[in-house]
Design brief:
Blueprint: E1 2-6, E2 16-22, E3 29-30, E4 35-40, E5 45-49, E6 54-58, E7 65-67, E8 71-76, H1 82-85, H2 93-104, E9 106-111, E10 121-127, E11 134-135, E12 140-145, E13 150-154, E14 159-163, E15 170-172, E16 176-182, H3 193-207, H4 218-227, H5 245-250, H6 284-299, E17 302-310, H7 312-329, H8 335-349, E18 356-358, E19 361-363, E20 370-372, E21 374-376, E22 379-381, E23 384-385, H9 393-409, H10 414-417, E24 422-426, E25 445-449, E26 452-459, E27 462-476, H11 482-497, H12 500-504
Parallel strand pairs: 20-24, 24-25
Antiparallel strand pairs: 1-8, 2-4, 2-7, 3-6, 4-5, 6-8, 9-16, 10-12, 10-15, 11-14, 12-13, 14-16, 17-27, 18-19, 20-23, 21-22, 25-27, 26-27
Length: 506
């Protein structure tokens, strides 16, 4: 009885794959769930496993493009074990014991766990345990980084760690990261790998397939096209010189050599100072921030309106009550709590500023989840203060400190960064006088705070010096009209210049 092995469905948008490599050769004995081949799409590489034990009969050839559901091979069940057929007569008893011990060794696969609904891939930033080291149950073996946060990967059992992925690799959810050998396994004789390599070579020869023309894989083709690199200028490390995805990632475009006529050639100026350069791979967080900012600029009708706030009343209030406030609540009285409270009050009068677009609908919220932009070591993160409209100044200050500390330590959870109806960013802490902040999608508006500078202003017909802060409101004109944006910012200005309004709700 034969068992048919077909190309499995590996994703909604993937309709075909390439059989990049046979791991097991035609006629080999395979076990249940043993990896027999590698399939490659334009997005990732997948392993094809045996759905039963028996003798492998290959049908598709290496390099063939196969549609989802296409027949790849068959497994003839009930066949005699290949190890029984090919046992060397002069095999020693010691080697037999080693082989039996290695076969009995169990391995535990460690895969990328699901870390959130919106996260489809992570980057392996650091191995905390090295290949071949002994690990304990639940011991942290690696750090994974998504576009939103950093996660720790624990060992699911005790044993010897065998790393599969490398530092810097981008892995999809469910991808194999490492294996753990359970118990003290004896390594098998090093002789068997040779026939496998030979069988793979023989399979390629039998199939008549050659990659001498440097045919790149689908994923490699896409990467090379984006880089504008000719495949003929790339050295392939795959089967028979085929260009793999890793080769394409490492490839760099070679600049054409300029044609210089000797008589008219100009001397290249020499520099005495150091001219070193340093290259760093962008983190997943930085790449995602870049993509989102460009997307917002391209997909929203964004513009900014400005105003100025006389900060003297708030500064006098802080100076008068800061000691008593800290003694009672255990936190300092900062500017952020006043701005957050003023925003929540203004959102009640101008609900469109806190709305967002979903499909062909506008979604209005009767609550204010205020996002606070925080500059963390790995990039900008925006944790959320939930239901800020119902919190006191002291509660807001405590929440700001808690979230900012977690952000700088890289310990923010996905829940603490998800959602938000409005964002506040404070460039003033770095000395910014004026800016046009970019909207935090899918929100429709963001308030930018800036530094406080003493400036001459006119009051009651006289020129006086006042501590002034410029404030900026960037907003999506598809959702918010000019009247609403200006009215919202004026309302925030009124509440800040007369803090008693915050207490009275007027």
């Amino acid at each position: 009885m034969s068992l048919e092995i077909k190309v499995p469905a590996v994703g909604e948008s993937i309709t075909e794959v390439i059989l990049s490599k046979w791991v097991k050769a035609d006629g080999d004995q395979v076990q249940m769930d043993e990896v027999i081949a590698e399939l490659e799409s334009d997005k990732a590489t997948f392993e094809l496993t045996a759905a039963g034990a028996g003798t492998l009969k290959t049908i598709a050839k290496e390099g063939e493009t196969l549609e989802i559901g296409a027949l790849v091979c068959k497994i003839e069940e009930g066949a005699i074990s290949k190890t029984e057929i090919q046992k060397p007569k002069a095999e020693s008893l010691e080697v037999k014991k080693q082989d039996e011990s290695s076969v009995k060794t169990e391995k535990k696969d460690i895969k990328v766990p699901s870390v959130g609904e919106s996260i489809t891939e992570v980057t392996l930033t650091k191995w905390l345990k090295q290949d071949g080291e002994s690990v304990a149950m639940d011991e942290i073996i690696a750090e994974l980084e998504s576009d939103k946060a950093t996660f720790e990967l624990p060992a699911e059992s005790a044993g010897i760690l065998n790393t599969v992925a490398k530092e810097g690799d981008t892995l999809e959810i469910g991808a194999l990261v490492a294996t753990i050998s359970l118990g003290n396994a004896v390594k098998a004789n090093s002789a068997p790998p040779a026939p496998v390599a030979e069988s793979n070579s023989q399979t390629a020869e039998k199939s008549g397939i050659s990659y001498a023309d440097k045919t790149p894989s689908p994923a490699a083709t896409k990467i090379l096209a984006e880089k504008g690199i000719d495949a003929q200028n790339v050295n392939g490390t795959g089967v028979d010189g085929r260009i793999t995805k890793d080769d394409a990632m490492k490839a760099e475009k070679v600049a054409p050599k300029p044609i210089v006529n000797a008589p008219s050639a100009k001397a290249i100026p020499s520099f005495s100072g150091a001219r070193d350069e340093r290259r760093e791979k962008m983190t997943s967080l930085r790449k995602t921030i870049s993509k989102r900012l460009v997307t917002v600029k391209n997909e929203t009708a964004m513009l900014t309106t400005f105003n100025e706030v006389n900060m003297a009343p708030i500064m006098e209030l802080r100076k008068k009550y800061k000691d008593q406030f800290k003694e009672k609540y255990g936190v300092g009285l900062g500017f952020m709590s006043f701005f957050t409270k003023a925003v929540t009050e203004a959102l009640k009068d101008f609900p469109a500023v806190g709305a967002r677009i979903e499909g062909e609908e506008l979604v209005y919220s009767n609550f204010a989840d205020v996002s606070i932009a925080v500059s963390a070591p790995k990039g900008l993160v925006v944790p959320v203060i939930r239901n800020a409209e119902s919190m006191s100044l002291a509660q807001i200050e405590k929440e700001v400190i808690t979230l900012a500390t977690k952000a700088r330590d890289g310990k923010l959870s996905l829940e603490e960064m998800t959602g938000g109806t409005f964002t506040i960013t404070n460039g003033g802490v770095f000395g910014s006088m004026l800016s046009t902040p970019i909207i935090n999608a899918p929100q429709s508006a963001i308030l930018g705070m800036h530094n406080i500078v003493e400036r001459p202003v006119a009051e009651n017909g006289q020129v006086v010096i006042r501590p002034i802060m410029y404030v900026a409101l960037s907003y999506d004109h598809r959702v918010i009209d000019g009247r609403e944006s200006v009215g919202f910012l004026v309302r925030v200005k009124q509440l800040l210049e007369d803090p008693s309004r915050l207490l009275l709700g007027i």
